[in-house]
Design a protein that fits this description.
The protein has 15 helices and ten strands. By secondary structure, it is of the alpha/beta class. It has two domains: 177 residues, NAD(P)-binding Rossmann-like Domain (Rossmann fold), CATH 3.40.50.720; 143 residues, Orthogonal Bundle (N-(1-d-carboxylethyl)-l-norvaline Dehydrogenase, domain 2), CATH 1.10.1040.10. The strands form two sheets. It has an eight-stranded mixed β-sheet, with helices on both faces. A two-stranded antiparallel sheet has the order 3-4. Helix 13 packs across helix 14. The radius of gyration is 19 Å and the shape is globular.
């Protein structure tokens, strides 16, 4: 089948390679001419310096990309998602299945990505929506290392369709779920705890502290799931604890890397200036903190990370604040 990828970054090209390996035809759209030229002429992923199949094509012509396929896979940071959708809407002529593989929540609205699509895409063109999520670093997927993710949609048939597109018996296993809320919440919230995990590593606080962080992070995630109407059973799946573990423990995680730099004494501005890719956890932390305040939710870890990021609280002080909370039963 023909598939359009919106976004020629490392994750977009890693997924393009999976589709190509599965004998599908892929056209990648990106605004960056350098990225497009690297794909078309040198057949490499610029960000990872990895080879990609020669049959993957790229373009800077968004109209051509939109008309190429009835399945549009968006792999762009949430910060520019509305702009990407606005550009897409101009050229929609028929219903499309929209798929998203980025993870985040919009700070000012606390909207999930599927809700942003539903808000911006005219209903006559929105055939369906699927989220691709799970423990999956582009650096490993593009090398063909074993990976398992989940295709989530409120319409099971759409999830199964995307499962069939991406499932590869050699290295890329895809499950399905109808808990779209849980998949999107898990994929976004885990980035906050990855920042905290990186900070712990940067401070040299040890593996015990990181294990405790992941465990208590799940508790805070569960509170969000419950108030948001997501299925808390998804926490035990790939889009929940699976994604949380890999993002909190892997040096491939840009959120972990950012937290590590902060743990080493850099402030937020210095950290962001030193990163080559978007750190979604920072925007998500802001969104989650504000939402928790409006709902009177007790989120000590998220609150501590928010104070470090946005109010310049010293990380040692944030650690003392967490450890100094009153004793209670688990």
């Amino acid at each position: 089948m023909k598939i359009t990828i919106i976004g020629g970054g490392s994750w977009g090209l890693a997924l393009s390679k999976v589709l190509s390996d599965n004998s599908h035809q892929v056209l990648v759209y990106d605004v960056n001419k350098k990225i497009v030229n690297k794909i078309n002429k040198l057949h490499i992923c610029l960000q990872l310096n990895e080879d990609i199949p020669k049959d993957i094509k790229a373009t800077t012509d968004i109209e051509k990309a939109i008309n190429y396929s009835d399945t549009l896979l968006f792999v762009v940071p949430t910060k520019v998602l509305r702009l990407a959708i606005s550009d897409t809407v101009k050229y929609l002529k028929s219903p499309k299945l929209f798929v998203n593989a980025a993870k985040g929540i919009e700070p000012d609205t606390f909207l999930r990505i599927s809700e942003i699509f539903a808000e911006m895409i005219p209903s006559k063109y929105l055939k369906g929506f699927v989220s691709l999520s799970g423990p999956s670093h582009a650096e490993e997927v593009i090398k063909g290392l074993t990976t398992a993710i989940t295709a989530s949609s409120e319409k099971e048939a759409d999830a199964v369709f995307i499962q069939d597109l991406f499932h590869n018996t050699q290295f890329f296993r895809v499950y399905t779920s109808t808990d779209l809320k849980g998949a999107e919440m898990g994929g976004a919230l885990k980035n906050i705890f990855a920042l905290a995990s990186g900070l712990i590593a940067g401070k040299g606080l040890g593996d015990n502290a990181r294990a405790a962080l992941i465990t208590r992070g799940l508790v805070e995630m569960k509170k969000f799931y419950e108030i948001y109407g997501a299925d808390t059973k998804s926490l035990m799946g790939l889009t929940g604890i699976g994604d949380l573990i890999v993002t909190c423990t892997s040096p491939h995680s840009r959120n972990f890397q950012a937290g590590y730099k902060i743990g080493h004494g850099k402030d937020l501005e210095e950290t962001l200036n030193s990163m080559t890719m978007v750190v979604e956890g920072i925007r998500t932390c802001e969104a989650a903190y504000k939402f928790a305040k409006t709902k009177n939710l007790d989120m000590p870890i998220i609150s501590a990370i928010y104070e470090v990021l946005f109010n310049k609280m010293d990380s040692d002080e944030a650690t003392k604040m967490l450890l100094g909370r009153s004793s209670k039963a688990e």
